[in-house]
């Protein structure tokens, strides 16, 4: 496995106060904790994500009724930074996150770039992970087992077992879960579940991680731990983006970058530390001892008057970025024409990686010298030409090359291969099959119920059509028996999948979206895993009804009857999956009741 010894994940620094003397002077010693490092993760490029003039529209009701949720917002999310997307409820935070992750694609206009190149969604999804609000975990696995599944699916098959185990151990230790490695995920606390969700996705070291409300449902201490962890991940060079409602002042300070939305527009983009100063410069004074996070939300909600327009203009709907150590941008940029503005923005994308201020200083002279009207494009070109003519690879070219490399890696995917998934479909099938069989082994309740239903209905139908098989005058009864038989087998097979699959869907969506496995592998695995059970239940049922209804004791006839019953139940199971995937549990239950009503109705008709 390709490992990056330098991709260190610096752990949070623990401070340990030691009180030496209760009566006399208090002596406090602060002992920094050992820095935790993740040394076994695959090497990944840093990823900067930028979006320009992003608009998202949805159609409501009639065709003409179009609602604009995001209104031409722009922004830039850098590697090595922890970014918070904030805003009042309904401002469009989740929508923006869903678009940036690639979870929503239709109805979107504008451009999204990865390291300066147009985003290739398929490759981007290999580079990123999306951790949704409700921890979508399988409750029937231990922490260790869940991690083993993740490593088997997310690391290339060539990775040795020992390497995988080291990755698991290292991540669990770093995330403080090693003590709980034998605990069932359903028994973990909310904070531990959140950490496990992160641990599962960290396995392939995605350089860009999205979190939807990572602190929801956590107490203040767990919130702090969670954000500390995200900050630590960001410090390791990753781009960490999360939506958050209203963090406490303590949590707010931990974010490097803030992107605030109000009514689908950007009202602030920049470092959290400069928010109050920036708002002050726009005559919006944050009261002393007031949480800046609450203040910007209150301002966005209109509690201090209608300032949204002013803020949006000042920040140029996300095109301006308030960076530490840099002067505030002009509130109304005065570009010569649209092209100049685009060049200026693109220049910002390329230049302000780490030390933009230095670079800006360097070429400011050239810009002014070459074109008194501030045409940045000429300035940049001239600066680059000067650097090249000096015989040195200039900073521009160096950075371009570095970006280019990253962009190439971004296009190829995580491990430099253009493949969609880290493992082959056969491996995916095998891992998901083993996991599904483990679930069945852990929870026999459903199996017992299915067995009981097949035996009970077998005896009921047997009693209803008792001894009809040999009687030539009861051909119609035989026909009824066959029809009822088919309905029952269809009903039981469909019901199981219709009712259980919607519960599984959120985990499937998360895992498939995060490129753990293909839908084909998943479908094959869960279908194959149920075949033996369905076959056994079907055989038991068929033996009961065949004997009770006195069908001809000929092996060939029995085999034909059994085969058709097996086929009916397998087909019904697939239909159940389709219905379960397409509809929610409520609709599924309604469909189930409809099928049951048809059976009862048929019986009544038959009796009449
Ligand atoms: N498919 C849709 N059809 C109609 N309106 C939608 C759709 N999706 C989102 N919206 C609307 O877009 C707005 C933004 O929704 P979004 O979920 O992004 O808000 P949010 O900022 O995440 O809110 P919250 O903090 O309450 O979760 C809301 O007014 C919502 O009703």
Number of helices: 20
The CATH homologous superfamily of the largest domain corresponds to P-loop containing nucleotide triphosphate hydrolases
Oligomer: single chain
Binned strand content: 5-15%
Could you name the CATH class of the largest domain? Alpha Beta
Offer a concise description of the structure.
This protein has three domains: 270 residues, P-loop containing nucleotide triphosphate hydrolases (Rossmann fold, 3-Layer(aba) Sandwich); 34 residues, no CATH class; 183 residues, no CATH class. It has 20 helices and ten strands. The site of adenosine-5'-triphosphate has 12 residues, from strand 2 and helix 1.
Secondary-structure topology with pairs:
Elements: E1 49-59, E2 66-77, E3 82-86, H1 93-101, E4 108-114, E5 117-118, H2 121-127, E6 128-131, H3 143-154, H4 161-174, H5 190-202, E7 208-212, H6 220-235, E8 239-243, H7 249-254, E9 257-262, E10 265-271, H8 275-281, H9 292-301, H10 308-314, H11 338-351, H12 356-370, H13 376-389, H14 395-412, H15 425-442, H16 445-464, H17 475-513, H18 519-548, H19 555-582, H20 585-607
Parallel strand pairs: 3-8, 3-9, 6-7, 7-8
Antiparallel strand pairs: 1-2, 1-4, 4-5, 9-10
Helix pairs in contact: 3-4, 3-5, 5-6, 12-13, 15-18, 16-17, 16-18, 17-19, 17-20, 18-19
The chain binds adenosine-5'-triphosphate (ATP).
The site of adenosine-5'-triphosphate has 12 residues, from strand 2 and helix 1.
């Amino acid at each position: 496995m390709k490992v990056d010894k330098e991709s260190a994940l610096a752990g949070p620094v623990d401070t340990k106060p030691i009180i030496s003397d209760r009566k006399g002077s208090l002596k406090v010693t602060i002992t920094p904790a050992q820095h935790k490092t993740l040394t076994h993760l695959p090497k990944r490029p840093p990823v900067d994500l930028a979006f320009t003039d992003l608009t998202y529209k949805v159609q409501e009701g009639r065709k003409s009724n179009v609602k604009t949720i995001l209104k031409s917002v722009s922004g830039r999310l850098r590697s090595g930074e922890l970014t918070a997307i904030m805003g009042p409820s309904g401002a469009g935070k989740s929508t923006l996150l869903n678009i940036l992750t690639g979870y929503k694609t239709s109805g979107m206009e504008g451009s999204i770039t990865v390291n300066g190149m147009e985003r290739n969604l398929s490759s981007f999804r290999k580079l990123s992970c999306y951790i949704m609000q409700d921890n979508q975990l399988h409750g029937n696995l231990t922490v260790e087992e869940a991690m083993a599944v993740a490593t088997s699916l997310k690391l290339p098959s060539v990775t040795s077992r020992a390497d995988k185990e080291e990755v698991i151990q290292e991540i669990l230790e770093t995330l403080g879960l090693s003590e709980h490695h034998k605990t069932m995920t359903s028994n973990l606390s909310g904070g531990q579940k959140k950490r496990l969700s992160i641990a599962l996705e960290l396995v392939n070291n995605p350089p860009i991680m999205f979190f939807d409300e990572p602190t929801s449902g956590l107490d203040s201490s767990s919130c702090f731990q969670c954000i500390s962890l995200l900050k630590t991940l960001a410090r390791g060079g990753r781009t960490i983006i999360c939506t958050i409602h209203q963090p406490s002042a303590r949590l707010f300070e931990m974010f490097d970058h803030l992107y605030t939305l109000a009514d689908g527009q950007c009202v602030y983009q920049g470092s959290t530390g400069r928010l109050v100063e920036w708002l002050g410069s726009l005559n919006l004074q944050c009261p002393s001892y007031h949480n800046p996070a609450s203040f910007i939300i209150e301002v966005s909600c209109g509690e201090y008057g209608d300032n949204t327009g002013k803020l949006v203009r000042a920040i140029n709907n996300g095109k301006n970025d308030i960076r530490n150590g840099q002067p505030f941008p002009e509130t109304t940029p005065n570009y010569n024409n649209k092209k100049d503005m685009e060049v200026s923005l693109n220049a910002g994308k390329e230049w302000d990686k780490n030390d933009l201020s230095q670079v800006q200083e360097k070429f400011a002279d050239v810009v002014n010298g070459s074109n008194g009207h501030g045409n940045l494009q000429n300035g940049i070109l001239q600066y680059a030409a000067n650097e090249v003519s000096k015989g040195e690879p200039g900073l521009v070219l160096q950075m371009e090359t570095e970006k280019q490399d990253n962009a190439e890696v971004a296009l190829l995917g995580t491990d430099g291969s253009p493949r969609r998934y880290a493992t082959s479909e056969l491996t995916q099938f095998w891992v998901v099959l083993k996991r599904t069989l483990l679930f069945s082994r852990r929870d026999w309740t459903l199996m017992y119920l299915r067995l009981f239903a097949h035996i009970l209905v077998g005896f009921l139908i047997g009693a209803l059509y008792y001894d009809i098989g040999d009687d030539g005058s009861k051909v119609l009864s035989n026909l009824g028996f066959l029809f009822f038989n088919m309905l029952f087998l269809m009903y039981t097979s469909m019901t199981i999948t219709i009712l259980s699959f919607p519960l599984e869907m959120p985990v499937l969506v998360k895992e498939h979206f995060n490129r753990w496995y293909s839908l084909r592998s998943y479908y094959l695995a869960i279908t194959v895993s149920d075949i033996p059970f369905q076959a056994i239940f079907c055989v038991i049922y068929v033996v009961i009804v065949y004997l009770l209804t006195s069908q001809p004791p000929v092996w060939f006839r029995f085999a034909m009857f059994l085969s058709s019953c097996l086929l009916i139940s397998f087909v019904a199971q697939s239909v159940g999956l389709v219905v379960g995937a397409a509809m929610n549990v409520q609709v599924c239950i309604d469909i189930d009741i409809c099928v049951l009503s048809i059976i009862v109705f048929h019986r009544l008709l038959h009796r009449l």
